[in-house]
Records
---
Amino acid sequence: MKILEWIDYRLPIVTLFRKELKEYPTPKNLNYLWNFGSLAGISLVIMMLSGIFLAMHYVPHVDYAFDSVERIMREVNFGWLIRYVHMNGASMFFIVVYLHMLRGLYYGSYKKPRELLWILGVVILLLMMATAFMGYVLPWGQMSFWGATVITNLFSAFPGGESVVQWLWGGFSVGNPTLNRFFALHYLFPFLIVGVVMLHMTSLHRFGSNNPTGVEAKANDKIPFHPYYTIKDLFGLGVYLCIYAFIVFFMPNFFGEPDNYIQANPLVTPPHIVPEWYFLPFYAILRSIPSKLGGVLAMFGAVFTLMILPWLDRHPVRSGRYRPIFSKLFWVMVLNMGVLGWIGAKPPEGMYLWIGRAATAYYFVHFWVFYPLLDKFEKARESHQKESVCGLEKLLRLAVLCIFGCATAFLMRLKRKK
Ligand code: HEM
């Protein structure tokens, strides 16, 4: 088209899109786990669009916030749909990003030369957590208020932290100034995430995607992104949207907390203050250390550990496929994260406290002790054969599946009871 040529000559965006999205050489052996990056991008767009429409009707004031959300649900045209898409979209986004990270962990995508790509990913995760936390405060329900109170109070663990907490609140408790600034920042942060995602993509396109073998693909092992991966991504998107729609239309409150349908009341503390499910493993780490400062340091330490992963795991072989011990420990780690998530939802007492402590200890031992040791002692496999999956690995996979199955069944029963 003449007009596009005219623009492209002066501002080469068409060339950029053609090079980076159409012709972009991609390894030909990527499996479906490589779909989660594009799904994360689409989730981000869905969240931003639904959020902008919600913001047109939401009132960020402690006297009106709760009612304005009810009004969106009952009176705004399709307000219920926009809200359920946004509410459940947060959970879908975290599921997709956690799977995206697990893929990277298993296939060693964080290793040289993709260290910065990985670090930018962890920065995105932190920004997502901050955005989700502030978003949860906006409906001004009981869990919004008390969750915000507990989490902002964590800063008081540091010396001089009391004044930081008051500065965050804009007063002497969580109140109207807090709600206002959380709304402003909740609107702003997704745009920051878009910026970091652009850096993430620039860094990805510098060396191209890793692949299941972990061996850098040569030029003739690559195919153009379009149409091969656009069609594969579209298929993944179809499956994703079916699951998303099922949750929105048939079980929209599955991930929610019933207590958040009660308006915030600073005089009544709910019996159990639980964060959203995607924070639970980190919440469990926080609570498993007896001192407040220790807990906060352990929680931030858990995220910091992810950041420096490329330097903790220096084994020359990239993919878990060819690393017999690493691949088994990977499943132990997944299981351990499931246990931490379960403990995060339980009161910090008795047996739960001890299981939480053991799982927290394992988290750090896994990355700080096992990874450096594997570098010295693990011998890589020469080939990837199906029969190399040993009994222990099968058992561990089965255990992970059983735990997730039981946890889902348990959660569903709990919801039905409520
Ligand atoms: C908004 C969130 C995110 C978006 C939109 C996003 C987007 C993408 C896309 C489109 C790709 C290429 C396709 C693929 O490999 O799946 C990719 C690759 C990658 N991402 Fe992300 N990402 C996000 C979050 C993260 C996080 C939280 C991490 C890790 C902490 C991460 C680490 C990686 C790595 C290591 C790769 C390279 C994978 C490989 O080539 O094997 N990303 N990302």
---
Amino acid sequence: MGIFARLFGRSKRPVIARLKPEDAEDVAQLHGDYFDRGWSPVECENLIADATCYGLGARLAQGEPLCGFLLCRIAADEAEILSIAVARHARERGIAKSMLARGIAGLGVERVRSLFLEVEAENIAALKLYRHFGFEEVGRRPAYYRKADGSTAEAIVMRRNF
Ligand SMILES: CC(C)(COP(=O)(O)OP(=O)(O)OC[C@H]1O[C@@H](n2cnc3c(N)ncnc32)[C@H](O)[C@@H]1OP(=O)(O)O)[C@@H](O)C(=O)NCCC(=O)NCCS
């Protein structure tokens, strides 16, 4: 992305809204672009419709296709980030930050007191994102992720208290 596009892109705020069942195909596509174990559109639709799930979608402007999503699952006063992803063309414009800020506020309203997640130890962008919001490392799971090429990667477990 060029410098002007980056500056222009950063100045526009994404449109963030709760996910709807009709977003399921786009969520499955965005998730599958990055994660080795994909989710089918039906799995995504079930998650979005599940009362224990809290999902947000991002668009660069009203009426444009989904360019990012955040899906969390709530259990009592704890929640877990199941997945967060932003389309490659829309990255590094603050979209993940906007979704997470909105998500943390929304989960707080749902009386969540701690938010957990797992992240691959070498996922620099995601680690920066989570540290920005005050997530702290609470554990490590060696060889937790199995990749398509057969290799494994360590997971860091992080928590943020509200
Ligand atoms: C991780 C991800 C969601 C970040 O989305 P994004 O919209 O590009 O992130 P933002 O623009 O809001 O930036 C968040 C932070 O990450 C940093 N960042 C984003 N992309 C980066 C990159 N490629 N390299 C280094 N830092 C990066 C930003 O500078 C920012 O940090 P700051 O607060 O210190 O400025 C996106 O890269 C993605 O979808 N990755 C694939 C899926 C994934 O890894 N999900 C997380 C699984 S746990």
